[in-house]
Amino acid sequence: MADKISIRQVGKTFGYGAHQVEALKGVDLAIADNEFVTFVGASGCGKSTLLRIIGGLEWHSAGTLEVDGRPVDGPGADRAMVFQHYSLYPWLNVLENIKFSRQLRHGREDLTSADVEAAAGRADALLRLVGLSAAAAAWPNQLSGGMQQRVAIARALMGRPQVLLMDEPFGALDAQTREVMHDLILHVHKLEKPTIAFVTHDVEEAIYLADRVVLMAPRPGRIDSIYPVPLPAERDQDMKHSPEFLRLKKEILARIKDTSGMQTDQDMLDRLNLGGVPT
Amino acid sequence: MWAIRGPLSPRAYWVLAVLGLLVPLGLWWLAASGEGVNKVFMPSPLDVFNRLVTWYSEDDLLDDVWVSVWRVTAGFVLSAVIALPLGLLVGTFRPVQAFLEPLTDFIRYMPAVAFIPLVMLWVGIEESSKIAIIWIGTFFQMMLMMAEDVRRVPMAQIEAAQTMGATRSETLRLVIFQSAKPALMDTLRVTMGWAWTYLVVAELVAANSGLGYSILKAQRFLQTDKIFVGIILIGLIGLVMDQLFRLAHRKAFPWLYLRS
Hints:
The complex is a heterodimer.
Chain A: E1 3-14, E2 21-32, E3 36-41, H1 47-54, E4 62-67, E5 70-71, E6 79-82, H2 94-98, H3 105-108, H4 113-129, H5 145-158, E7 163-167, H6 175-192, E8 195-199, H7 203-209, E9 212-217, E10 222-228, H8 243-259, H9 265-272
Parallel strand pairs in A: 3-8, 3-9, 6-7, 7-8
Antiparallel strand pairs in A: 1-2, 1-4, 4-5, 9-10
Helix pairs in contact in A: 4-5, 5-6, 7-8
Chain B: H1 10-32, H2 45-57, H3 61-92, H4 94-108, H5 116-122, H6 127-151, H7 155-162, H8 168-197, H9 199-202, H10 211-220, H11 224-252
């Protein structure tokens, strides 16, 4: 199968002059159509930056990046992004948020009544998919954090994106809600068949959701290793206790620690301690 | 009751609010009714009320109020229609910010009063000169505050639109402006108050009517009670306008006022 996303020797520097920081260096990765890839790594490893580059929200300073064989030059409707929070439009109700992309120009060109009907049907279907039919008329700030992320996912899916980019979408949710969201996003992935790139700091989440887990390392941000997940395609919560799952989790956690460059908080304290404090 | 940021029943709130108005009024009454207090220095509330009645029946109180309201509103609206698009651009595009913000920061510290001679020279002494003074007093602050309101729009809202295929102008119109609207309206409310504080300054310029002008004229004739009336009226009009803005805010942005 042809690669959906192809990343070759991508690099990224931030800042100007002496303050330049190398956020990414020599990143090579091919993501297949309909694949679910998660990114983990110590802070500063550039996983969010890489996701934002795929989304066209940041420009890479080296290498090439193609989605569907076309070079990425800015954000586009084929690569919808779901953020950790604050991305819903509080002045629109749930249904209006989901239909937001219909307000945009590309959705208005040569619009027929059949299109409008199809859009209304799609919005309803998405509402049902994320389990929020009863909340269609609610304002976003009447919803819980988990419900808000459901809306954000439905809204991102509205324009039938080829690629769904998710930047720690469940990072602000409590553990129980998160588990429910995991099964929801797997269901979405099965039904809508987008290619998903998903950034998280939760290794368990990364393994449970992914076909492959990409581990990145900091200074400079790079891909350290890639772990295919040895679980059946159809996931359920019990698999989190299987030996394969636990072994992989342990392996990945150990590798993140090894690559972080700063093993413990004590190291960090030592680094901050510029002398003067009696030992 | 004294818990930090603790709750307060609506009834207690209103009782305290009314007391907050009545206590100064009572103190004023006491101060004015003391032995040997000269009315020129401290007219009593009754004197002030009587002056209000004679101003209304013998002079043109309503005309004065009307012309002042018109001047303040005109200067304010003129500020708003220029500050709004500029504020949107400054808050959205860094090059525009770099170009305009330091300049505006510089100008806003210049006292509006000091511009009176220049305004007379350039704009003349007609009605437009009063509006120009109010404009100078409000525009620069307003633009900077609006730019700040626009900058506070969460980046995730903007980027979500971009990854849904929104163009630059669509993002500006459908996301940034919509998202900043409640804050922009609050800025309008606050700067409306400032516009009123420039009224007296504006009516220094060859005016022959208006509340500010009347205060200045009363000063020349030592009509302290009339000065009181003028100041209190400006305060009351400001209060009413402020409340109207708040009401409109509630009506326009209902999602901000949900009872959970």
